[in-house]
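Hello, quick one for you while I still have it in my head. Could you read through the record and tell me how the tokens relate to the sequence? No rush at all, and the record is pasted right below.
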Amino acid sequence: MFRYWRWLGAVMVLLAGVVLASDFSAFVGADSMMSGPLALLMLLIFFTAYLLVFFEQQTGISKSKPMIFSAGLLWMLAAVIAYQHDVPHAEIRLAVTNNLDEFAELFLFLMVALIYIKQIEGRGLFELLKSGLVSRGYGYKGLFWLTGSIAFFMSALADNLTTALVIGSVVIAVGKDSPKFTSLGCINTVVACNAGGAFSPFGDITTLMVWQAGKIEFVGFLQIFLPSLVSFLLPAVILTLFLPCGAPAISREKVVLKRHGRMYCGLFLVTIVLAVIFEQVLGLPPYLGMMTGLSVLMLAIFLRSRRLPLSDPDREHNLFSELPEAEWDTLMFFFGVMYCLGALSFIGYLAWVSDALYLGYGAGTANVVAGLISAVIDNIPVMFAILQMNPEMNDFQWLLITLCAGIGGSVMSIGSAAGVALMGIGKGHYSFLGHLRWSWAILLGYAAAVATHYLVNG
């Protein structure tokens, strides 16, 4: 491990020296804030941080740490560059404040969603679903299609990350005696979760960001339902041809929904409706509706706890303390990504990339390429970068990039939060290389989905 860090540090020092000794003013323009070596050093820091995120499991460093540290470094360098170009301090502060507004909206929305999902999970709803599927006695092919279909529709409400964890655990539980079914079932789950999350603002972080940015109205995302469905069905049909025959052993385990489970589910649906009403009817940001729904949950828990005996553990119920460390790490990772990209945008990188892609090749080609890039970089930073670029696009093209970023992350297991999470719980069953063997089938689904979008919505 020490040797790994020693070599990484040596490479970083070497690259930093090359960058600082270079002059790229002729390439980007002498007056551009991107012309100096400090601007290139910012790129080096960002990609190094993302490399550490990429190898999170190997290094043992949680993904939020390098991104938050890099965010601070990048804004320090951006401030120095701005000073060299006589940019007023007020303009720098305004850029940082804009980053804070964007992160705060996403943070509050996701925090409420994660709290609700954690409470519903604690009441046993997901375990009930798992037990019901396992005990039915379906064959491997039946379970493959059943879990995939549930994942597709469930991710539209419960988000693709949570759905991947729930359905993935079902696939691993029922296929423990068949490694081939487990591997193909997990791949199918990731593809289904990302496809189902693409046509709903609640299904994926990328879709949520597009909705909160006001690019597409809530019901407008339903236009990419059919392309999303195609991106799930085509790979699923191909994978079905390679599934093993037979059926897993039937489980007789009995699971029941715990006390007040239906109340939590009902309040979650109410909260989602409130978010939609706040945005579509009242013209208010959707996170405010989510926070209002959270207050209803807190009041319901308080009123319920007053009726419980003092010895009942549910009497002292702290919603915020129950969020696991992994989810806080994810929320802080978003902070780091947003602030890193905000700093790069401030000195002009994202505008330069936007001109190169969207003016050089056109919105359609640029969006399809960006979707494929998200298979490697992860779809969340790709979508946030595009929103920072803010290219001139109509609704059709904004729907196209939403579709491509959502389903493009399925091409590789590291391209989406669903794939990364499933690799975490599916060690020995689902791996990067196992997913990569079937990337060609997922790419066919990606191409068919894009073609369907042009055919149906063009």
User: Anything to note?
Assistant: The CA atoms of residues 262 and 395 lie 38 Å apart. Confidence is low (pLDDT under 50) at residues 1-5. Residues 89-122 form the longest helix (34 residues). Residues 99-458 form one domain.
